[in-house]
Amino acid sequence: MRAELTIDLDAIAENWRALDAQSTGWTETGAVVKADAYGLGAARVAPALARAGAKSFFVALAEEGAALREALGSRPEIYILGGYMPGDLEIVREHDLTPVLNSAEQVRGFAADAPGTGCAVQLDSGMNRLGIEGLELPALMLELNALRPKLVISHLACAEEPAHPLNAMQLGVFQTLALGFPGIRRSLAATGGILLGPAWHFELTRPGIGLYGGLPFNEARPVVGLSLPVIQIRDVAPGEIVGYGGSWTATRPSRIATLSAGYADGLIRAMGGRARVFAGDTPCPLAGRVSMDLLTVDVTDLDAVPERLEVLGPHQGIDALAEAAGTIGHEVLTALGSRYARVYKGGDN
Ligand SMILES: *Cc1c(COP(=O)(O)O)cnc(C)c1O
Questions:
Q1: Pocket test for ligand 1, best of 58, 61, 152 (most atoms within 8 A of CB)
Q2: Distance in Å, CA 182 to ligand 1 centroid
């Protein structure tokens, strides 16, 4: 019996439609499927999103784009957020990928290598991660105009905090910089930006985490379930310890269940002593540290220990688990390992 990760493709499609419904008809809703669709499997997730209506997809790396092209066929647009790296020419051409040029260097490199090939441009509106800065633009306009980008984008640093002053500031900077690209489609909003409201939507949005059921999209339908088989149950006397470092000590006669998954499977070690798993509706605390391949759980209060305990599901979503591990839902998802039996539900719409 293996630990089982279920991925609900219908829920992903529904989350895409719900985010799409937040904007008006002239805004297109794209889909971010970088890092293998946040760890959930782009080969299954992206076609489900395409059937729901997504036409523009975003990945981080050219290699991810090549694999995505195989999964999606020739029609959808595939943007490479990491941009154009030396050596990417062949893969970009062969798989019809659209690099998002992120710096003066990338613009010049791409203009020299691939003058007739489609591209997009990222402008820095204040995050200072990727993107061409306003002051660099005048010296690049000749090359940029010749490349005729399909899209100009920027990215918000604090969209998860609606009241953060940087949101309005970045919006203003992006609007101003985009004036240098008349008639070219604009994109600023990821999941958080979509929820900020119509001023942030422009012609194309780029939701990622919201599709996969994570915050800040409160109303998202949960997408993943994870249940772990119980491989041993033992009784532990008061004063005995459980696990590495002896960090948990029984204070009463206790029953400990050992489950088959650990930090090598993305159950982040920092959640030891803080997270819970569920037996039906009943929460059971982790007892002691998370090991590489195993978890130990205090099941003393259960009348009967089921064959499997639930880590992710209706009682505990990715954000609740993330909080126990001191991280965010994005990291919980992308950490999920390759050893789970993966079961896809739905997706035949
Ligand atoms: C990852 C990413 C997104 C998607 O962000 P979410 O917060 O997951 O919706 C959008 N745009 C860029 C540039 C990104 O790097």
A1: 58
A2: 24
Q: Amino acid letter at 100?
A: V
Alpha carbon of residue 317 to chain centroid: 14
Interatomic CA distance for residues 330 and 147, integer angstroms: 34
Proportion of the chain above pLDDT 70, given as a percent: 100
Q: Determine the pLDDT at residue 53.
A: 97
CA 141 to centroid of ligand 1, rounded, Å: 26
Question: Which atom in ligand 1 lies closest to the alpha carbon of residue 214?
Answer: 8
Tell me the CA–centroid distance for residue 190 and ligand 1, in Å: 5
Give yes or no for a contact between 70 and 98, defined as CB atoms under 8 angstroms apart: no
The verdict on the CB of residue 209 being under 6 Å from ligand 1 is yes
CB-based burial label for 239 (10 Å; 0-12, 13-18, 19+): exposed
Q: Helix or strand or coil: residue 276?
A: strand
What pLDDT score was predicted for residue 25? Answer: 86
pLDDT number for residue 241: 97
pLDDT confidence bin for 347, thresholds 50/70/90: confident
Q: The whole model's pTM is what?
A: 0.95
Ligand 1 atom having least distance to the Cα of 32: 4
State the pLDDT at residue 226: 98
Domains of the chain, CATH where assigned:
9-212 (3.20.20.10), 224-345 (2.40.37.10)
Catalytic residues: 34, 244
